[in-house]
Structures are given as C-alpha cells and as structure tokens.
UniProtKB/TrEMBL annotation:
InterPro entries from the UniProt entry: Aromatic_Lyase, Fumarase/histidase_N, L-Aspartase-like
Source taxon at top rank: Bacteria
Database matches in Pfam families: Lyase_aromatic
SUPFAM superfamilies per the UniProt record, alphabetical: L-aspartase-like
Keyword annotations: Lyase
Cited Gene3D superfamilies: Fumarase/aspartase (Central domain), Fumarase/aspartase (N-terminal domain)
Record-level Gene Ontology MF annotations: ammonia-lyase activity
Protein name: Histidine ammonia-lyase
Length: 498
C-alpha cells in the first residue's frame, strides 16, 4: 500500500519529496474548509464588482483592462491556453508529481480562491499517477510549467499514464473526470505562484541529502587507500571549527574508519595529507551547512502563500490584495546556493578520483589497471569525472541574476527560481555520477592493496556491497555499464556501516 501524506497545515520539503516518490496526498477537513472559504470570498468579489487582478481584469501589462463578468470564464480559460507555451523535453515523473503536490499545498493555504472541485481534480490526477506532460524549458519563473498542468484540467494539452501519452481529454476520461470550466481567478491561480520552484527544490534537497551520506562513505573508502594519518579526523581538534556539518562529517569518517589497521600501518608517511583528503570534514561539512540553510528556506516558502492576488476577509466583507508573493527571489537564491554547494562536493570527489588513479601520488598500479600497458583501467573514466566537474562549473553560474524584462515593462525584474532549481537538479545528477565513479575507483584500489593488515570493518562492508553489484575491473566490459549499475544502487539505498 502506498504511503499517504496528510495535508493539514503547510507541507514540508520532505513531504513534497515523498509525494514525488509515489506517496498519495490527502487533504484534511480543515484544508478543504480553507479552500472553500477562499472561493466564497472570490465569488463575492465578482458579485460586488470589486476590481481584482486576473479576476475581472486582464493580466500582465493588461492589468488595467476591466473584464465583464460574462467574459471572466473565457479569461480564465484563455490564460491557461496562452501560457501553455513551454518547449523541450518534459519533466520526469518525480519532478511532475513534486510540482503538482506543491501547487495543491499552495491552494490549501486558503488564499487563492480556486474551487474545491478544481483541487479535487488535481488530487485525482496526482494520486492516479495520470500526470500532465510539462515541457521543461521556456519559463523565466513558473507560468509555462503550471499552465501545462492547468490545460489538462480543461481537457487540453497532454498527459501520461503507465508510459502512455494521451490527450488531456483522454486523461480526464481515464480519471473519471469531466473537463473543468475554470471560473473567475482560477485560470490565473492555476498558473501562478512558486510551486514549480518549491516542488523541484524539495526533490533537489531529497537527492542531495542521500548523496551527502554517500559522499562521506566514498571519501572514507578513498582515504583508507591513500591516507597517511592514523587519526586524521580526531574529534577534539575538529570541535575548534564551529560548524554542525563539519562535526557530522567528522563523526561519520571516524565511524567508517574505526579499527583500520591499514591506516595504522600508513601513519607517519607524511606530515599531513593533501587537501582533497585532509579537508573532507571542512568541505563536506560546509556543504551540509549550506544544505541545512536551503532546507529552511524551502520549508519557509512552502509555509507561505505565493499566489497573486490573494483573497482575504469573508464573503460579506471580501478583500483582494495585489502584491508580489509569486516572485520567488528567496528560492532562486537558495537553489543557486545549493547548486554551488553540490558542485563543490563534485569537485572534491573528482580530485580524490585523480589521486586514486595517478601512480605519481597513489602508490598503486597506474590508473588502477589490472595489467599495466595492456589495460587502461580507470584512466578515461577520470576524464569523465573531470568533464562533469567542468559542466557543473558552467551550470553553477547564478540563475537568480539572469534578470530580463517581460510583459511590456510590467514584469521588469525576474528572479528565475524555477530555472535555478532545474539547473541545481542537473548539477546534483552530475554529483551522483562522480560519487559513483569514486566508489568504483576506491573499490578497485581496495582490491589492489595487500590484504594485510585488514581494513576497517565498515569500509570492508562497503567494499563487499559494491562488489556484490559489479566485479573487479579488468578492461573486460564498458565502464559506463558499471557506473549505471552502481548509480541505480545508491539511488535507492543508503550506505550502512554493517
């Protein structure tokens, strides 16, 4: 049975990530009451002719054009169709589910004014895994991504279910839903806010959190092969640096390397190790600290209303407020920070890979090859890691500074939160691959070491787990196949010490 996330108050990034991974989403009675209350206010705004952006006016630079009540349904429908102009390959299934979950959570705050029926339709599609096809390119913020979801609700656009692409109308029929006729404000609310960025950011955090553990594990396995100090990550000296992340990494490394007779034997070869080995707690720890700061921002955004306008008051005293809550500046900055942190973690992993394969510093056979000269071993896969580090360096340029002017100067500064989250996910994907390459190289080095003195019990277990999936490498198969195998493994598992 699938896990179910109950939406009562604000969702957290972990809950969004759980829905992205396949959990069902269910709203509490209180959440439904908030949605219905906001719709009552919106209906009262319409009935009383109170001007509200996107309710009875045009949008963007057309915000001063008043729309007659008879045309407000057409306005909502037209917003969805005209804004559905994204291009490129579609988002993946987890990314789509994350965006939809964040969108529903935004409506459930009770300030958007969409109908209960609209949210119920979104929930039915999400929980039925009947997912809109969302083109990943063409949005400076959120509009095109969200419009791709909204168009399916009205029977337009495309959706997929069980690997089958179908029209929006076919998708609704499969879900047992009629095409939605969006009322006043619903078209605007369905394309508005930061759910695209918060959904993708939640997924990025979940993926980074898992990779933080694997990065420490890979670093420990590499250190045991190359390190020259018996107690390099001693607790007391590390406490002199004030960083929660550093302390966590130091503790992890001590546990991974506890009982290593190999390190005891190598102690004293050098006064201190090179930075890619010695600074593991400082660099991995800084990444963990950055992760914690970004996670706080994303949870704060998920607890915020990011629609514009918002409706408040009551049906007897309705109010509408046009502010800029849909602008995702905080998310853009946070995702840029997470991207840089992930790129840094990728870079130090590649530096350790280089030391493993380089006979000038490793003390191991050149390129970890099974037969020097005849076999190239891990020579070229280090190139792959270096290429991904370079790609991350390019991707890490801040999206939040891209700027831009749209809608005839009405939207004259852009913060690019969704593109920032998108490129952070790309960097995280490269990070995962480079960590896999380090695990493979460190396991190969482990095999090339003399079997005595024994390794640490925890690293020996890690080595066995890798070897249970891929063999010692003898230039006998494409290395990228081994990378794929281990990547699938770490994508669904965490490293364990026993």
């Amino acid at each position: 049975m699938s896990e179910t996330v109950i939406l009562d108050g604000p969702l957290t990034w972990r809950e969004i990530a759980a829905v992205a991974g396949g959990a069902n989403l269910q709203l509490s009675d209180a959440a439904w009451q908030r949605i219905e209350h906001a719709r009552d206010i919106t209906d009262a705004l319409v009935a009383n002719g109170i001007r509200g952006y996107g309710i009875n006016t045009g949008v963007g630079a057309l915000c001063d054009v008043v729309i007659d009540e008879s045309q407000q349904k057409a306005l909502s429908r037209n917003i969805l169709l005209s804004h559905a102009c994204g291009v490129g390959d579609p988002l993946g299934k987890p990314e789509t589910r994350a965006v939809m979950a964040a969108q529903i959570a935004n409506f459930a705050h009770g300030y958007s004014g969409v109908r209960r029926e609209t949210v119920e339709a979104l929930l039915t599609l999400l929980n039925g895994d009947i997912l809109p096809v969302i083109p990943a390119r063409g949005s400076v913020g959120y509009l095109t991504h969200a419009a791709a979801i909204g168009t399916v609700l009205i029977g337009e656009g495309d959706a997929r279910h069980g690997g089958v692409i179908m029209t929006g109308r076919e998708a609704l029929a499969r879900a047992g839903l009629p095409p939605l006729v969006p009322l006043a404000k619903e078209g605007l609310s369905l394309v508005n806010g930061t759910p695209c960025a918060t959904g993708l950011a939640s997924l990025a955090l979940a993926r980074v959190e898992r990779l933080l553990e694997w990065a420490d594990a890979a670093a420990a396995l590499t250190y045991e092969n190359l390190g020259a100090q018996a107690d390099p990550f001693a607790a007391m000296p590390l406490t002199l640096r004030k960083s929660p992340g550093l302390q966590t990494v130091g503790d992890n490394l001590r546990r991974w390397l506890d009982g290593s007779e190999r390190l005891k034997q190598s102690a004293g070869r050098r006064t201190q190790d090179p930075l890619s080995l010695r600074a593991i707690p400082q660099i991995h720890g800084a990444v963990r600290d950055a992760f914690a700061q970004v996670a706080e921002v994303v949870d704060r955004e998920l607890s915020s209303v990011t629609d514009n306008p918002v409706v408040t008051g009551s049906a007897s005293a309705p109010e509408v407020h046009s502010q800029a809550h849909a602008v995702g500046a905080a998310l853009g900055l946070a995702m840029d920070a997470l991207a840089v942190a992930a790129a840094e973690l990728t870079a130090i992993s590649e530096r350790r890979i280089d030391r493993l394969v380089n006979p000038l510093v490793s003390g191991l056979p050149a390129f970890l090859a099974a037969d020097n000269g005849v076999c190239s071993g891990f020579m070229i896969i280090q190139y792959t890691a270096a290429a991904l580090v370079a790609e991350n360096r390019r991707l890490a340029a801040p999206a939040s500074l891209d700027g831009g002017i749209t809608s005839a100067l009405q939207e004259d500064i852009l913060t690019h939160a969704t593109p920032a989250a998108d490129k952070a996910l790309a960097i995280i994907g490269n990070l995962e691959t480079v960590i896999v390459i380090e695990l493979l190289a460190a396991a190969q080095a482990f095999d090339l070491q003399p079997q005595t003195p024994p390794a640490a019990p925890a690293t020996a277990v890690l080595h066995r787990r890798i070897r249970a999936r891929v063999p010692y490498y003898r230039d006998d198969r494409p290395l990228n196949g081994l990378v794929k195998e281990v990547r699938q493994f770490i994508g669904t598992n965490l490293p364990t010490l026993d």
